[in-house]
Amino acid sequence: MQVILQALIPVVVFVAAGFILRRAFNLDFHPVSRVALYVFSPALVLNALIAPHLSFGALSKIVVFALIMLLGSMGVSRLIGWLFHQPRPSQSALDLTTVFSNSANLGLPLVAFSLGQSSLHAAIIFVLTQIVAVNTIGAYLAGRSGVDPRAAFHRMVRLPSLWAMMVAIILLVLHVHLPSGVATAARFGSQAYAPTVLVVLGSTLADWQHSQFRQFLPWFSTAARLIVMPLISVGVVTVLSLSTPVARALVLQIAMPVAVNALILAREFDAAPEEVGQTITLSTLGGIVTIPIWLAFMPAIHG
Which H or E element spans position 227? Predict the structure, then answer.
């Protein structure tokens, strides 16, 4: 429980700051959300992909795992949407909240504190796959909430995060380093991303009424995120024959609540941001119960 509290306290502080600012001063946080998406998000991608800890030798099975979980979570999301006949914006909200876990802000500290350095490297690589996926596939899923797939693709390619990813890959292939000043700027921007999106989340929570949590969809999405997907991940790491430290790290990352950057995309593309924010809140609160259970289950997981 102490490990969980150490990871959750920073989250609570920034969410509370956004909540209080919205309630006290009625601030408009939509411009802040766009700053996170168009400035801090590409900095996060660039900094993550050029970081010296990236090892291509360790990537293959973790990338395969990430792809399998992406397809699996999409299948679970579409099944829920089909069963309850959800409109396109709600389906996009389901996709965003089922596919992407809070593997960076919450997952990495938990892996470091509970599983140690032997699992941390695998967790970092998984986070990189999530960063790339949320800024490409996530943007597409959010963008198609109100438009046809071709228009959603055009929206996606206009996001600077995608171009930051392409620049980083070119630099890695050519073994070229960023100028130190640019690298420093990318590092500072990446550090600003998480606090910014948490403040935006807090401001969104400030506008909700308690009655909104009676909607059933966020509860189903929370259950998929915290229970169904981790159970699927246990089977996947077994089939892939991953080493035990890697397997445990990946299962724990999948067991995290919904990624807060899903809300940024939902707000930008009007992909039912209220439902996304509700699911983030419910899954974060629910994680206080489910994460200790998954931590207790870790000794039983073997690659």
Answer: none
Which tokens hold the place of 142?
Answer: 């959010």
Angle at 8 between CA 39 and CA 127, to 5 degrees: 50
The predicted pLDDT at position 132 comes to 80
- The enclosing domain of 26 has a CATH number of 1.20.1530.20
pTM of the predicted structure, to 2 decimals? 0.77
User: What is the torsion angle, in degrees rounded to the nearest 10, for the CA atoms of residue 230, residue 95, residue 152 and residue 133?
Assistant: -10
Tell me the one-letter amino acid at 69.
M
Long-range contacts of 71-78 (CB under 8 A, 24+ apart): 72/229, 72/232, 72/236, 73/98, 73/99, 73/224, 73/229, 74/98, 74/99, 76/224, 76/228, 76/229, 76/232, 77/221, 77/224
pLDDT mean over 75-88: 91
Distance, CA of 259 to CA of 287 (rounded, Å): 12
Q: Is 32 helix (H, G, I), strand (E, B) or coil?
A: helix
SS3 (DSSP) at 258: strand
How many structural domains comprise the chain? 1
Compute the distance between CA of residue 47 and CA of residue 71 in angstroms, rounded to an integer: 27
Task: Give the tens place of pLDDT for each residue, 207-240.
Answer: 766 555 567 788 999 999 999 999 999 999 999 9
Longest CA–CA separation in the chain, Å: 54
Determine the pLDDT at residue 264. 83
Phi-psi region of 99 (alpha: psi -120 to 50; beta: other; left: phi over 0): alpha
Domain hosting residue 31, numbered range = 2-207+214-300
Q: Quick one: DSSP state of residue 107?
A: I
What is the helix (H) or strand (E) element at residue 99, kind and residue range?
helix 88-99
Rounded mean pLDDT, 278-285: 87
Rounded CA separation 204/30 (Å): 10
E strands, 36-149, in order: none
Q: Please name the residues in contact with 138: beta carbons below 8 A apart, sequence gap of 6 or more.
A: 96, 99, 100, 261, 262, 265
